[in-house]
Each structure stands twice: as structure tokens, then as C-alpha cells.
Amino acid sequence: MQSIIAFIVVFGSIVFFHELGHFIFAKRSGILVREFAIGFGPKILGITKGETLYTIRLLPLGGYVRMAGDDMDNIELQPGYRIGMQLNDKDEIEKIVLNQNKQLPDMLFLEVEKADLQKELWIEGYDEDEKLVRYDVARDAVINENGTETIIAPYDRQFNSKSLGKRAMTIFAGPLFNFILSCIIFIVIGLVQGIPTNEPVIADVVKGSPAQAAGIAKGDVVTAINGKAIDSWQELSEAIQNSPKKEMTLDVQRGEEKAQITLTPKEVVVNEQKMGQIGVQYSSPMEKNPLKAFSYGVEQTYTWTMKIFELLGMLVTGKFTLDALSGPVGIYKATEEVAKYGWTNVMNWAAILSINLGIMNLLPLPALDGGRLLFFGFEAIRGKPVDRQKEGMVHFVGIMLLMILMIVVTWNDIQRFFF
After folding, report:
1. What is the mean pLDDT of residues 129-151?
2. Which class for 215: exposed (0-12), middle (13-18), buried (19 or more C-beta within 10 A)?
3. Domain of 93?
4. What pLDDT does 320 receive?
5. CA–CA separation, 49 and 216 (whole Å)
6. Which ranges carry the PDZ domain (predicted)?
7. 302 and 399, same domain (yes or no)
8. Do 385 and 266 belong to one domain?
9. Together in a domain, 294 and 411
10. Does residue 34 fall inside a structural domain?
11. Lowest model confidence (mean pLDDT) among 72-86, 111-125, 138-152
């Protein structure tokens, strides 16, 4: 149960933040957002607030923000349609009823001749007296079809009506919010757990080592090496490793006292490389500092971003195969393992996964956010958008290929973990 809860919290938070980025920037751009969904497939829970339906769906494999102007979004009233209408106090149509025989209060009927529900917002047709009439349509009018209500989307509220910059930012905001989430998680870890100070403090001394023979003690702080000041364990470690069988002098602070110790690192071979070693151990003290916690969050996000890019490079160059990739099953099993070591480790894992999702979505592949941004790049160069039907076909093919990849990766995960 703990593993299931951890997986739902981790994966759900990452997907939610990703879609929240799309949602916020779509709303800021004036785009009508029809649905904010977590998951795919059949709807489990749905709540309508304002003009947006918020849903949780059966398959927890992602989410989406459905914006006005998407394919199959707009309803067209063809000549000959018989519709019911309700008017507001300005005599504008506020509700259009399709395919419903039951008459609502104050409903008027019209046989449609012509209609524009996107730009000029009007409907023209023959009333019950067979007289040709024309009504304006309210910008927030609702279409009721078989009991389901949909708000109309004037063209200026559709995704494709917005400037290239607003469209690109709305798409880029999803991955951007994944990096922001990662940064926030690392900051919280820094505030709660503290930040490693990385000070050159000796945590312990190995018996029989050059350090013990020279008189180095637990708790000593190394302040200089061969007269050169240092302030981090990394500097101390690199200096020792680079000096096998070479005498060196360490300036040490021991309480209120200062000492100068001379020793010679012994030579060890690691991966066919000769390195120095003196036999000391490191355990970084933790410091709770809000300002340093903020910088820690940014630094960790950057560090893990670079590591994931390195792994992608290895995948492209063939150093990794598809067998090394994991899907939802692999993520669940990894989350199950991480959850054994406490919620701090789960938070760290969530931050890394969030970065990974952000990077994956920025790859210039069809159907991903990066693929859509690539088409926006073509639009910027050409000065006009790519034909929407051609772009839609490319994204459709991309979705099919991604589904195949997901099936292969999931099957590999099942074989790896259960057989």
C-alpha cells in the first residue's frame, strides 16, 4: 500500500504540474480550456468549474489539457438543421439545443440557413412562421447536444488564433513546470533535511592508514594543502588522489588549536589509474539555511538535467539499448524500492523523474511538446504555419510509434520484474 501511495503521489504530482503549466499559460493567453485531465481513458471523476471540466481518468499514464480549436472541437450548424434556442435579455442566443425533442421553457425553434459560430457569431434561418430571421449569438453561448453542454469557442479564444509566441509558450510551459517542480522539491529537501556543507571535515580515520600514522584525528578540519587554502572536501579529495607517493603538508584546525601535518598518500589502482589515498572518511555536516536551500534546489536541478542529457547521448550513440528504458511498470518498481528508505528519498526520486519528463517532452519528436515546438520553428522561418492537416498526420504517426514503444518498454519491464 505504501508503494502504491508513493507511486500515485509521485507520478500524479509530476503529471499535474506538467499539465498545470499548459493550463496557466493557455488561460493567460485567453485560450478557452475545455478540459484539464489527469490520466487517459474512461472518466472516473469529473467536476466542471467555470468553462473547464476537470477530470481524473482510468489509465494513470499521463494527462492532457484540451484547448478550443483542436481537431473535432467545433460544431458546425449545417443548412437544414432544426435547432432549439433560448435567448438572453439582449435577445442574443445563449443556448442552442440539438437532437432533443423535449421543449425547454422559452425555447424558440429555427431551421438553419446559414451560421457563423466562430468569428461574427450569428445564426440565420427560418422561424416557425417560415420567416427568414437572424439572431446574434452570445460569446459564452452553450450548445446542448443529446444532453451534453459545450461552450462555443469564438475564434479569438481558440489556440490557433493566438500569436506564435503565445502558442509556443503555452506548449513550452508544460516541460518548464516540470523543471520548476524539481527545483521546488529540492528546495523543500534542503529546508527540511538541510544542505551538505561540503566542508573538509574528517569524519573518521582508518586504522593503520597514512592519516592515522601522521596524527590526523576525527573532527579535524583541513584548511590548506601545501600552503594553498581550501574550503571544500572535493578540493581535499582531488589533491590527495593526484599525489600518490608524494609528500604533502596539511594545515589542520583542531578545536581552538592549529597544526601542520606532513604525510605521504599511498598508491592505489582504480580502473587502471593510479591514485593517492590517506585513509580518511567523509560525512558532510548538514546546514539549514533558506537562501542556501534555494541555490541548492537550482544546482541540483541543473546537475540532474545534465546527467539525464548524458544518458540520452549514450542511448543515441548505442551505449544503451531499448532494454535499458523503463515505462510505467519500471517506474512503479523503482518507486517501490525508493519508498523503503523514507519520504525524503521518494521526494528526491520525484524531482529526478520530473526533470526526466520535462526533457523527454522537449525532444523534437512528433506528438510530444518538442515536436509541436519544432513545427512552430518552421512557422517562424517560413512566415506562415505548416498545413494543419499535414502536421496532424505527422503527430498521429508519432502517437502510434510512441504507443508501440510504450508497449515494447512495458513488456520488457514485465519480463524483467515478474519473470
Report:
1. 90
2. middle
3. 81-152
4. 66
5. 67
6. 201-267
7. yes
8. no
9. yes
10. no
11. 72-86
Hey, what's the cell of 250? 596539511
* Distances in whole angstroms, Cα of residue 162 to Cα of each of 69, 76, 393: 11, 21, 22
Is the pLDDT at 72 greater than 70? The verdict is: no
Q: What is the pLDDT of residue 191?
A: 92
* Count of structural domains, the chain: 3
Q: Over the range 69-86, which residues count as b (16 or more CB within 10 Å of their CB) and which as e?
A: beeeebeebeeebebbbb
The grid coordinates listed for 168 are 509556443
Between helix 369-382 and helix 343-362 the angle, nearest 10°, is 30
**Do residues 244 and 263 both lie within one domain?**
yes
What's the chain's average pLDDT? Answer: 88
The answer to whether residue 336 sits within a structural domain is yes
CATH number at 205 reads 2.30.42.10
Residue 37's CB: how many other CB atoms inside 10 A?
21
DSSP state, residue 285: P
**Hey, which residues does 285 pair with through a beta bridge?**
none
Claim: this prediction has a pTM higher than 0.85:
no
Among 284, 299, 328, identify where a domain stops: 284
Residue 272 known to be catalytic: no
225 pLDDT more than 90: yes
- Give domain status of residue 23, yes or no: no
| Domain co-membership, 279 together with 225 | yes
Write phi, then psi, for 403 (nearest 5 degrees). -65, -40
- 381-401 CB burial, b ≥16 within 10 A, e <16: eeeeeeeeeebeebbeeeeee
- How many residues would you count in the chain? 419
> Does pLDDT of 323 surpass 80?
no
CA distances from 37 to 40, 260, 396, 410 (A): 8, 65, 20, 23
Per-residue pLDDT tens over the stretch 88-138? 999 999 999 987 666 667 888 999 999 999 999 999 999 988 899 999 999
Among 19, 124, 128, 257, the one annotated catalytic: 19
Q: Which residue, among 288, 266, 292, has the nearest Cα to 277 in the 3D structure?
A: 266
* In-domain check, residue 222: yes
| CA atoms of 291 and 190, how far apart (whole Å) | 10
Alpha helices in 164-209 (DSSP H): 164-193
Per-residue model confidence as pLDDT tens digits over 258-303: 999 999 999 988 767 889 999 998 877 778 888 989 999 999 999 9
